[in-house]
């Protein structure tokens, strides 16, 4: 067999492994959880080895498990399908149209959490508007979108509309690309989707442009394909791991948690940092739990990056990643699993080295296990 043929066979095997891992993911129990409970490993990660109990844990760089919720669990229990990331994205759009508690759900957001603190000024303002009702919140979103001249990847002014205004039979991504209007529900999931549009407008525009172009070319279809799978995973459950140190990037890719999280604690904020870009991941982190894990896109940054103010760092990442999304075809296996509460300084319990001695969350990679 030629090297090229062998490479294609390996790629096909990896894609099948990702789909199989997704179908085996178990539903995360509902409600708030103690973040030290390692029994509830997150099924929402790019790298999770399958376990006998059907759930997933950090350790398989080729997995593609989407964030768990009742609809996804139902599909998984029924045997899933060949395109689990697509099923996840569709089912997320089918969730309830509004907060069942009339807006009180927005008060549960802790804007002092390290993963949200850089966006707290806008977030707290939006929280107050959302608690007043859907109409007041949408007005605020659109006023700010106009003021900041947000636009889609096709150059249309961005605006936010009620979910009910989405025409029947039109794909969500297509509607945004063709009209500039983002169907938005009065709930936490879409609250964070809008927040990411403002925080990383170029990345969101690039994601939508790629998704819409794929739909234009091939239709919605029963199978999204590898590129759209990867776009969905970044959009829903992604994080950016920015680093100026190749050794730290290698540690993340290699599941070397002792190096990345313990020996290199002082490097966080000086030679690496992490930023949440997936809006479903933001929603899950309203109730943090230890196994909550992101699909991390590793971004090489200059050393000067860590001297810049936060807004400049965010804008730099936004431009760099958006350009990469436009120029290359992302793949699910290109992400690295990053257990969010393991980021030094992001959770009080991780100040203890014992926090990382948890193989249910901080697992070794498949290659390491095979050695």
Q: How is this fold's topology laid out?
A:
Blueprint: H1 3-24, E1 48-50, E2 56-58, H2 70-77, H3 84-93, H4 120-132, H5 134-148, E3 159-162, H6 172-179, E4 181-184, H7 188-199, H8 201-218, H9 226-237, E5 238-243, H10 246-253, H11 257-263, E6 272-276, H12 279-284, E7 293-300, H13 310-327, E8 336-339, H14 366-370
Parallel strand pairs: 3-4, 5-7
Antiparallel strand pairs: 1-2, 5-6, 7-8
Helix pairs in contact: 2-3, 4-5, 6-8, 7-8, 8-9, 8-13
Pfam families: DUF3025 (PF11227)
Protein name: DUF3025 domain-containing protein
Region (Disordered): 1-84
How is this structure best described in words?
InterPro entries: DUF3025. With 371 residues, the chain is an alpha/beta fold. The protein has one domain. It has 14 helices and eight strands. The protein has helices spanning 3-24, 70-77, 84-93, 120-132, 134-148, 172-179, 188-199, 201-218, 226-237, 246-253, 257-263, 279-284, 310-327, 366-370; strands at residues 48-50, 56-58, 159-162, 181-184, 238-243, 272-276, 293-300, 336-339. The strands form three sheets. A four-stranded mixed beta sheet has the order 6-5-7-8. Strand 3 (159-162), helix 6 (172-179) and strand 4 form a beta-alpha-beta unit. Helix 6 crosses helix 8 and helix 8 packs antiparallel against helix 9 (226-237). The protein is globular.
